[in-house]
Amino acid sequence: MTSPLGRLRPEHPPVRRVDDLAAAFGLRVDGPAEGVTATGVTMSSADVEPGDLFVAVPGLRVHGARFAAEAVARGAVAVLTDTEGAELVPAGVPVLLTDDPRAVAGPVAAWVLDDPASRLVTVGVTGTNGKTTTTYFVDAALRARHAVTAVLGTVELRIGDDAVESPRTTVEAPVLQSLLALAHERGATALTTEVSSHALALGRVGGVQFDVVGFTNLQRDHLDFHGDMEGYFRDKSRLFAPGQARRGVVVIDDEWGRRLAQESPIPVETVSTRVGAPQAAQADWAVVEADVGLDGVGSRFVLRGPDGARHEAHSPLPGLVNVSNAALAVVVAHAAGVPVDAAAEAVGRAHAIPGRMERVVERGDGWPLCLVDYAHTPDALELALEAVRPITPGRLVLVYGSDGDRDRGKRPIMGQVGARLADVLVVTDENPRSEDPASIRAAILEGVRDVRPDLADVHEATSRAQAIREALRLAGPDDTVIVTGKGHEPTQEIAGVFHRYNDRDVFLAARAERREQHA
Ligand SMILES: CC(=O)N[C@H]1[C@@H](OP(=O)(O)OP(=O)(O)OC[C@H]2O[C@@H](n3ccc(=O)[nH]c3=O)[C@H](O)[C@@H]2O)O[C@H](CO)[C@@H](O)[C@@H]1O[C@H](C)C(=O)N[C@@H](C)C(=O)N[C@H](CCC(=O)O)C(=O)O
Ligand SMILES: Nc1ncnc2c1ncn2[C@@H]1O[C@H](COP(=O)(O)OP(=O)(O)OP(=O)(O)O)[C@@H](O)[C@H]1O
């Protein structure tokens, strides 16, 4: 990370009258709103800046209006909430009333900041896996035509060369609007953001009409939140709607992509990324040749366009999944105005992405190849291990766990995948959150036992750092140690406490210690 983005607010926001805002959105006003002006919007009392409109939403745990007094004390000039929330707002504070404050938070923030999204080329990428990688590839391609760009997602919030850690995959709607305004103020002309299914369900991209949206794939994940795959698909599909996006690009390798392309009410281009797949002939764009790099560095592929022209392209990251991400990124960037060959060239040169098949220590000097990857679903894990096998002359050593307070059903499946595709397993903790870490490990080990009943070469470690050290102790110079699940994450969440922790740092510390011992 370089210098912080500060308050993530534009320095020179417009000044908007609260009564004009109420009129524009047909909101009832309670209390003295006349002459009151707002310069920003927030949904979190802790983030209020003087001049903000505080949007108090009924949360899953608590009503935001409980924090209205705190927000006003910090300088909020008015509160936008529902009738339940209005009861909790201190007397004398102007209240704007709506049935669904979460739904209007984005459009209202866009109005207050004078629709910043309309001043930039905007791209949103959704899907279960590959969002981060694809947004970085898209950003690389957009930089072929835009001197300053912004990219927002799980890893960081970046405008030009300035980046801060990201609180989540897709920030809340008022934060997104502030970032769009700040990016515009800093000279950015294009912005790419990951759009999670939670974001779509909770209105976090409200108030943005994306120029182009992309869909990677749909795989089992987050069913705790969306209920079932149908609900998950419905939430993802919300990105492909008039008013939310102008046009879309959909990878049709899986049945969900094919269905999205068929049902989408906005115009979409389709991309098939598996050579020889039956859907390739119908796809607008198709990967027709792929030389999936066996050197672990990247792959070369040929993308056939709608006019039949063949475009040489490269993925700078290993494995078939990254051919898919790179192909999608090229087509998305093309839809956003970058000539296809310039987009392909720029994607091929994109930099490494933190925690995505990141080569932390190269093989050599007696050390195994050490990788960190963010795969945390059964499908992603399978693909990651398949990508690493060809670059591993010896044994594949996997260190992994599974998140607490998230989809429990995937744990034994992760166990089975690991046992099937890796040689040595060290099962450990990811982010146990409020759950008992031992019971999460036990659920993974249950799946491991299905495949490997004798638990040969299966180890268990209660601390993630110890697990990595154990893997390094077990691994020889021809082996590969891959740690999956946390990727770039700078913290580990245990029993409500976020501890500073990063897989990469553990590898590097272990190597530094070994060097010192041998010095
Ligand atoms: C399920 C979910 O997404 N929940 C989000 C939701 O929480 P909530 O409804 O429980 O909110 P709450 O705690 O009841 O608070 C209600 C309101 O009071 C406000 N409040 C609360 C406390 C306070 O002191 N002051 C204050 O103003 C809150 O800002 C909120 O607006 O609204 C909160 C505030 O906006 C979010 O922080 C919270 O995200 C939580 C932290 C979360 O973990 N979300 C994850 C699941 C998520 O969104 N993940 C996706 C990525 C998924 C993926 O693809 O991997 C993401 O986009 O990051
Ligand atoms: N197109 C893909 N299909 C399947 N798996 C993929 C794909 N791209 C990447 N992966 C795997 O998924 C992991 C996560 O990749 P990435 O961070 O790009 O996805 P993401 O959608 O941003 O994930 P998240 O929403 O959890 O942040 C990677 O580490 C890789 O193992």
From TrEMBL:
Gene3D superfamilies: Mur ligase, C-terminal domain (3.90.190.20), Mur-like, catalytic domain (3.40.1190.10), MurE/MurF, N-terminal domain (3.40.1390.10). Keywords: ATP-binding, Cell cycle, Cell division, Cell shape, Cell wall biogenesis/degradation, Cytoplasm, Ligase, Magnesium, Nucleotide-binding, Peptidoglycan synthesis. It is found in: Cytoplasm. Residues 39-106 form the Mur ligase N-terminal catalytic domain. GO terms for molecular function: UDP-N-acetylmuramoylalanyl-D-glutamate-2,6-diaminopimelate ligase activity. Its cofactor is Mg(2+). Carboxylation is probably crucial for Mg(2+) binding and, consequently, for the gamma-phosphate positioning of ATP. Residues 355-487 form the Mur ligase C-terminal domain. Residues 125-333 form the Mur ligase central domain. Its EC number is 6.3.2.-. Coiled coil: none annotated. PANTHER family: MUR LIGASE FAMILY MEMBER, UDP-N-ACETYLMURAMOYL-L-ALANYL-D-GLUTAMATE--2,6-DIAMINOPIMELATE LIGASE MURE HOMOLOG, CHLOROPLASTIC. This is UDP-N-acetylmuramyl-tripeptide synthetase. It comes from Cellulomonas wangleii.
